[in-house]
Design brief:
The protein is of the alpha/beta class. It contains ten helices and eleven strands. Helix 2 packs antiparallel against helix 3. The radius of gyration is 21 Å and the shape is globular.
Length: about 325
């Protein structure tokens, strides 16, 4: 049976061959596994990808144990990982500090961030992982940081709404990212690249005149819309930022319920948008997926307790009762 490999898979395979760091190779292998067609003709290839992934992850763990720490790699936690991108002194670190308890180095001078600094941003009943990274410039991206950007689920470009070079900031960021195949150049993804989802965020929205600056930037660059104005000082826009990031991550929250018991609404399962009842069972335990017979659902799209099939697509905040 022919493999019928997709362009997305071949691009990820090319990135794996060209990757110069372990995190870059791991991110490429994960993309290969996610995009390879799942059928009998690719079973050996899928097994080989899993084997190489396990080997690369073990290698990364061994390197960390021996002190060979990758300063830019952060293991994913929460509903998804968002990497912050920005020119020097735009307020990335202050934003991470405002929404999490991360120990970031907030300083009034540029290049205060030298390595990846993660922080967990609460949004409703989940957390989204933000990763503060060194700034980008006209010279490009700090060596070693590309793997972290490829590994992240979403890129968040931060723009200082109070700065005189506001119009140049997005150009610098997008040019640096496009040069490494991380965002589109026009309507096309560069060969061997992968277009990461991007959220644009304006910082320092509490400063005088920033609202007008933001509107002017959106008028001049409609391709950048919508920009989320935020303030680390006043908290303005942080709730909207959490919602925008959650929507961009393309995930859903699903709550489990045991028969005859209340639903567990404290710890939702986070699944990719489009996941099915069977995907939820697999996320809980592979044996549960194998023995799954039926399910009942409580949610906005069905009547309370309606029986659904294993291939039923889940919506955000659905409550599912699985039966084996």
């Amino acid at each position: 049976m022919p493999a019928n490999l997709t362009p997305q898979y071949r691009a990820a395979e090319q990135r794996f061959r060209e990757g110069k760091s372990v995190p870059e190779k791991i991110a490429a292998l994960e993309e290969m596994h996610a995009t390879i067609p799942k059928h009998k003709g690719t079973e050996k290839m899928q097994a080989d990808i899993k084997r190489r992934l396990a080997k690369m992850r073990a290698s990364a763990q061994e390197a960390r144990a021996k002190g060979g720490v990758d300063l830019f790699h952060v293991e994913k936690q929460g509903a998804g990982q968002v990497a912050l991108v920005g020119t020097p002194n735009v307020g990335k670190s202050a934003l991470v500090a405002a929404v999490s308890k991360a120990r970031v180095n907030v300083a009034p001078y540029p290049y205060a961030t030298h390595a990846a600094v993660p922080g967990m941003m609460p949004f409703e009943d989940i957390h989204i992982q933000l990763v503060d990274l060194p700034p980008v410039s006209d010279e490009g991206v700090v060596p070693g940081m590309i793997g972290a950007l490829r590994y992240a689920d979403v890129l968040m470009i931060c723009l200082d709404l109070s700065a005189k070079d506001l119009l140049e900031q997005p150009e610098v960021c997008l040019r640096a990212l496009a040069a490494r195949g991380l965002v589109r150049k026009g309507d096309a993804v560069p060969e061997g690249g992968i277009a990461k989802p991007v959220v644009l965020v304006g910082t320092k929205a509490d400063a005088a005149g920033t609202r007008d600056n933001c509107e002017a930037l959106e008028a001049l660059r409609p391709d950048l819309r919508p920009i989320v104005p935020t303030s680390a000082e006043t908290g303005e826009g942080l709730e909207e930022l959490g919602r925008r990031l959650f929507e961009t991550l393309c995930v859903v929250r699903v709550y489990s319920k045991e028969p005859g018991k209340p639903a567990d609404l404290q710890r939702p399962f986070i699944l990719p948008r489009g996941s099915t009842v069977l995907d939820l069972a697999s996320a809980i335990h592979k044996d549960l997926a194998r023995g799954l017979k039926r399910a009942r659902i409580w949610g906005s799209e069905k009547y309370e307790g309606q029986a659904v099939q294993r291939d039923h697509v889940l919506a955000d905040k659905d409550v599912i009762e699985l039966h084996v």
